[in-house]
Amino acid sequence: MEKQQGQGIVDQIVDEQIVSYSQTNEEEAWESAEWFKLYPKERFVVNMKNLKVALSAREKIVENDNTTIASELAAIAALGESDGNFNYPVWYSHEASALLEADVKAGENKGKKPREFRETKDEYKEFPLDVFRDKLYAETRKQREQKMKVFKRNKLAEQKHKQEVEEEQARWHAEQEHDETVDQMLENLSMH
């Protein structure tokens, strides 16, 4: 249990950047606190190195995703602003998008045809009826299906977690058997 607490604390320190993980030597970090020393030094060093690699990879993925998203949003905005076929604003950046999400969530559209519902707010009227109708149907479908997706996501995450726990248990048991075998071999050698 103490070893797990030590690893959790390392994660917390790295996450909170109490220690600049990219500039801290793993052995110095292990020496820096008594509770780290409860965790075997060799494993601590390996885990901290692995954590640094994982965090670096995650930072690169996030940076790449942000760059991709920014360029795609810019392309969408440019298309909406420059194409002469559009005589209405870009939906995703317009106030009507957020209003529609809230109104559908509140059930404001129930019992109304898209044409009637469009007339309830000036922001909706800035879009042609066919565009507004498509957005209304898409938002309604999204909110209806979201509950199912959340349940499915949670179920998949639970299965993945269970599998990871089983794999970790198997690895731990294998290490324990290995440690016991080594201890027996050392004991046998010391008897001779």
Which characteristics define this entry?
192 residues; 2 domains; 7 helices; elongated
Structure characterization notes:
- It is a single chain.
- The chain has helices at residues 2-16, 26-31, 41-82, 95-106, 114-118, 122-125, 129-191.
- The chain folds into two domains: 1-86; 87-192.
- Helix 4 packs across helix 7 (129-191).
- The chain has 192 residues and is an all-alpha fold.
The percent range for strand residues is: under 5%
Q: Give me the secondary-structure category.
A: mainly alpha
Largest sheet: none
Low-confidence stretches: none
Taking all Cα atoms into account, the compactness measure Rg is 28 Å
Secondary-structure map:
Layout: H1 2-16, H2 26-31, H3 41-82, H4 95-106, H5 114-118, H6 122-125, H7 129-191
Summarize, please.
The chain is mostly helical and 192 residues long.
